[in-house]
Every structure is written in C-alpha cells, then in structure tokens.
C-alpha cells in the first residue's frame, strides 16, 4: 500500500504542472475485495489555500467542502525521492502561505504560490458504487454521474477482474440535441471520444476533411444552443424592449430557422449570439437591450465548464492489467496503471465508457496443482513398482 501511495504522489506531482481550475489529476485504486480509493491533486487560489470555506475551484467544491476527504498540501518539487515530499494538514496557515510566498519570490522562475502548492485529497470507499455515487467532480454545479460495474471471475491459476464505468451524458442538458440533426450517433462518438475510429485507413487529406466537417457540425450545435438561450432570454423580456421591429412570435420563428441552418457559424470560441441576431434581423435593438438590461444576462457556465474540464486519470487494478476496452481510448503505462483523460467533450457523447481487465495469479493454485501432480506420480510409480514385482 505504501508503494502505491508513493507512486500516486509522484504521478500527481508530475501531472500537476498542467493543472488549472478545470485540469487536475485523479488516481483510482480498485482492490480485489471491491473496496477502492481515490487520490486527487489540484491547484487552488490563495483564498482557498488558507481558508477551507473559500471554495473557488468550481469543479471540486464537493472535495473542499467535505470532511470525508482527507486533505493535505505540499510544495511541488523536482526531487526524484518522493518520500522527501512533505505533506502538511490543509488548510495552510497564513504563516505557511507567507513562507511559501517568500520562497516563490526568491525563485528565479518567479512562480506563484498557486503554481507551487498542490492540494492532495484522498478518500476510501466501500465499493465502486459508493465511489461513483460520491464522484467529486461537478460541472456548473452538476455532479458528473456514472454507472460502475466490478466483476471478479475465478480461473484457477488466476483471478480475473473487470471494471467498467459508463458516464451519463450531459447532452440532455442542451435544449437542441446533437444527434441526429448535426451528427449521427456514430459520428458524435468518434468526434467526442475517438471511438469508433472513422478515420481508419484514411489518407491525411481525407482525415483532415472528415475532422473539419465534424468540427463545423459540432460547433454549429453548440452555437445553436447558445443562440436559443439568448432568444429565450429576449422572449422573457420582450415587453420591456422598446422599438422592436417585429412581434415576439415573428422574431422567435425567424430565429428558429437558423438553429439548424448551415449559415450558423461553427466557430464556438468566437461566436457572439447577440451580434448574429443583429445581422439576421438587420436591427441592433435586441443587442442593445441585452447589453443595457441587467435582467437579460445569459449564463454560459455549462458551456465554459464543459469546454475547460480536463482530468488526467489513472486506474490501478488488482494484479496486472491485461486488456483495455477499445472505447476507453486510454493506455497502459510502464508502471502497470491504466491512463485515460476525462474531458467535457467526452461527457457530451451519447455513450462514453471505460473498461479495464486485470489478472492476479493465484500462487496457491500452482502449489496445489504441483502437489496433486506429484501425488499422482507417486501413486503411479508405487502401483507400477508393486505390480512389477
């Protein structure tokens, strides 16, 4: 167990250099008896580091607010001797924070405290069902949900363990659905998770064309939902908008045409719904109303949270991992752990699942088999010797 914890800490220290509010590391260990544990490493701002009641990390509020998660903090270093990394109780005292700040100021690279200190949270669970039920990750206040399955099969010389986890899609949270108007379910799974590989056997040019078309389709889907949100906000406040060029039913119906139109931009990074409405209706009345009326503020937390979410995950299984489900799109590391990435886009897929299988040798089975074989050999030789006399 100590070896596992040391590796988990090392992995966390290595991966944490990429951590942001939506980018952190989560390691899961599943044991032979079905119990499991999770370790999470993430960064936090100064307020959260010093005061545990300040929860500005929107993805891990469940961790920061729960007493069931054991939380410590440590200074991220470059030492290969992980045992030398000292973890201290969270939250930091103001004196500890000031001390680290002084060290950061003396550092030639001038790193901030946020980029130097990591919060490490750990929790044990009685089963994989309890673990997923208490998933610590939230997106725009909504918990990431999944259905787990842990199976154990006895094969005499070894025991086989299989863990699968099927994630609930966030797509239903969008009023306009991705499938089938923008993409087929197969295309959506490929674009969002990489499985099935629709580009297999394609040339570079063919692959580029496929991906560009899918990117445009996905972008139009996101922008259609953003546009509809703005149109509905306008509708809720239509009576207070002055000098409108048309009635609300006329405006609503005209904009509805563009939800599925090819003229809708697929650039979901730079798309501005208000300006698009102005362009279509040849009037800036609605754009001005949205800018001037405090009641007409649109909430894009779900869009931005899904866009920013990126969790570097690993799973340790009993024994040695021998197989990974193709749909998982992960890899087995040299250390024997299964690595995969959980992103907001994957959570929009109709079906996103990970699956991993491991085997643990039953040494006693080998011993019993050898003893049994030797016993048979002994009685066979004895029988032949007696009958040969």
Termini separation: 59 Å
Shape: extended
Number of helices: 12
Structural class: alpha+beta
Main β sheet profile: 8 strands, mixed
Helix content: 25-40%
Instruction: Give the strand order of the largest sheet, numbering strands 1, 2, ... along the chain.
Output: 4-3-5-2-1-10-13-12
Uncertain residue ranges: 1-20, 78-84
Number of strands: 14
Mean pLDDT: 84
| Strand and helix order | HEEHHEEHEHEEEEHHHHHHEEEEEH
| Integer-rounded radius of gyration | 28 Å
- What portion of residues belong to β-strands? 15-25%
Write a short abstract of this structure.
With 389 residues, the protein is of the alpha+beta class.
How does the SSE layout of this entry go?
Layout: H1 2-15, E1 23-30, E2 36-42, H2 46-50, H3 61-65, E3 70-75, E4 88-89, H4 94-106, E5 117-125, H5 128-133, E6 138-139, E7 142-143, E8 146-154, E9 158-167, H6 185-193, H7 204-236, H8 248-256, H9 273-281, H10 285-292, H11 301-308, E10 310-316, E11 320-324, E12 331-332, E13 338-343, E14 352-361, H12 363-388
Parallel strand pairs: 1-10
Antiparallel strand pairs: 1-2, 2-5, 3-4, 3-5, 6-7, 8-9, 9-14, 10-13, 11-14, 12-13
Helix pairs in contact: 7-8, 7-9, 9-10
């Amino acid at each position: 167990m100590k070896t596992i914890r040391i590796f988990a800490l090392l992995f966390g220290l290595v991966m944490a250099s990429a951590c942001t509010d939506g980018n952190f590391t989560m390691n899961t260990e599943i044991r032979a008896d079905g119990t499991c544990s999770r370790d999470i490493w993430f960064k936090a701002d100064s307020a959260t580091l010093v005061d545990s009641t300040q929860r500005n990390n929107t993805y891990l509020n469940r961790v920061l607010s729960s007493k069931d998660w054991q939380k410590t903090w440590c200074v991220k270093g470059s030492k290969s001797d992980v045992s030398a990394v000292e973890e201290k109780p969270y939250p930091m005292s103001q004196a500890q924070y000031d001390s680290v700040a002084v060290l950061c100021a003396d550092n030639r690279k001038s790193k901030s405290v946020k980029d130097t200190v990591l919060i490490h949270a750990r929790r044990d669970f009685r089963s994989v069902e309890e673990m997923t039920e208490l998933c610590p990750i939230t997106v725009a206040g909504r918990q990431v949900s999944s259905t787990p399955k842990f199976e154990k099969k006895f094969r005499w010389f070894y025991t086989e363990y299989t863990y699968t986890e099927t994630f609930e899609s966030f797509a239903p949270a969008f009023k306009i659905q991705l499938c089938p108007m923008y993409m087929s379910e197969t295309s959506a799974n490929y674009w969002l998770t990489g499985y099935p590989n629709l580009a297999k056997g394609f040339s570079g040019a063919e692959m580029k064309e496929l991906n560009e078309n899918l990117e445009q389709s996905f972008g139009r889907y996101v922008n259609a939902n953003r546009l509809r949100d703005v149109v509905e906000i306008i509708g809720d406040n239509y009576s207070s908008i002055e000098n409108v060029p048309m009635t609300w039913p006329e405006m609503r119906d005209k904009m509805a045409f563009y939800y599925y139109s090819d003229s809708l931009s697929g650039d979901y990074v730079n798309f501005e719904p208000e300006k698009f409405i102005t362009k279509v209706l040849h009037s800036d009345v609605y754009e001005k109303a949205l800018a001037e009326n405090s009641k007409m503020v649109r909430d894009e937390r779900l869009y931005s949270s899904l866009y920013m979410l990126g969790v570097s995950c690993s799973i340790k299984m009993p024994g040695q991992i021998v197989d990974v489900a193709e749909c998982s799109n992960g890899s087995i590391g040299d250390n024997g752990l299964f690595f995969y990435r959980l992103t907001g886009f994957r959570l929009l897929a109709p079906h996103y699942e990970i699956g991993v299988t491991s085997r643990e040798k039953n040494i006693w089975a080998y011993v019993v088999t050898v003893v049994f074989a030797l016993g048979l050999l002994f009685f066979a030789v004895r029988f032949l010797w007696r009958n040969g006399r």
